[in-house]
Amino acid sequence: MTPPVALGWMAGGDPARAEQLLREVQHATGRDPANQWSLAWGWQLARCCLMQGRAGEALAVAQQALHAADGAGGAVPCYDLMVLHRTLSEAAEQTEQVALALKHLREGQSLYERLVGRSARARYIALDVTHQLAQARRERDVAVDGRRSVEDDRQRLSELNAALQAQMAETQRLHEQLREQALRDPLTGLHNRRYLFELAPGLLERARRQQQPLSVVLIDLDHFKLLNDTCGHAAGDLVLQRFAALLADTLRRSDVICRHGGEEFVAVMPDTQADEAQAVMERLLQTFSTLQLELGRRRLPRGTFSAGIALFPGHGSTLEQLLSRADRALYAAKHQGRSRIELVPRGDFTSLS
């Protein structure tokens, strides 16, 4: 019998049977109390004691488990530690140790907030899958170390290994989904600046190794703040979404496009000279300036953009340098009346040494 089975007995309203199973498992396996498995065992046994009205014993068991975890070193499962602190708080409250109860309640809440994090639902699902995976591993370990027959062990191990593979695949899928969410701009669907700065070093190294040009384009929608102020944020969001879609349709699949923030976008165009990038941006500007958008029954004013283009390696050897030069060219385009594409001047270059 294993701790997950004991949880089933507790959920079914039989804490005495659950406690018996937990003590039998601890005795049969001879586990070192200072390990991750015993942390889960400790809070489950403490809860059994609480459910049977033995708050003092529950407090002692939970404190022993916490002490063992503190002395073990290495990583401690955050979920089990959170439940242990909550159990300690409940036991301390029932034994009228208010200060101790409040201390462990705060510790448990802090661990809970760490677990939930920013993407609460997705992270909780990922945590739950990881926890189930750990439980499956523990069951497999008990099956290997137990005294069952060889034939029963072989069948159970086969089932557990299959479950492990499925849980590992699900965990990987959720981790990839979380990473993709972290690298995407939710409004436009384009990648964000974090993705750009992760990918850029590899693109620049490839261009350097192959001695190929690479253009970096910084784009800013003209009069966007005025559009937001006069037509509302819904209109601004619609313009951003349609421009992002037009940008993605115009550039190549090998180009990297991201929303840099606000009304700014960045395009990294490998194997592209600055004048070639300028020609692409001119076509994009022509298309965008003739685009007529409507929100409800209201026609929105047609938009334009300004852009600055910097070239690797002549204008910089890092993304930060190239964006800085492109920003100066963008400023020049704005200063000259907007709705323009400007290159970094020929004399404005940087040394690669």
From TrEMBL:
Keyword Coiled coil included in the entry's annotation: yes
GO molecular function, one term: diguanylate cyclase activity
Coiled-coil segments: 147-181
Residue ranges constituting the GGDEF domain according to the UniProt record: 212-346
Gene3D superfamilies listed in its UniProt record: 3.30.70.270
InterPro entries membership: Diguanylate_Cyclase, GGDEF_dom, Nucleotide_cyclase, Rev_trsase/Diguanyl_cyclase
SMART domains per the UniProt record, alphabetical: GGDEF
Annotated catalysed reactions: 2 GTP = 3',3'-c-di-GMP + 2 diphosphate
A GO term from the CC aspect: plasma membrane
EC assignment: 2.7.7.65
Enzyme class label: transferase
Gene Ontology terms describing biological process: cell adhesion involved in single-species biofilm formation; negative regulation of bacterial-type flagellum-dependent cell motility
Keyword check for Coiled coil: yes
Protein name: diguanylate cyclase
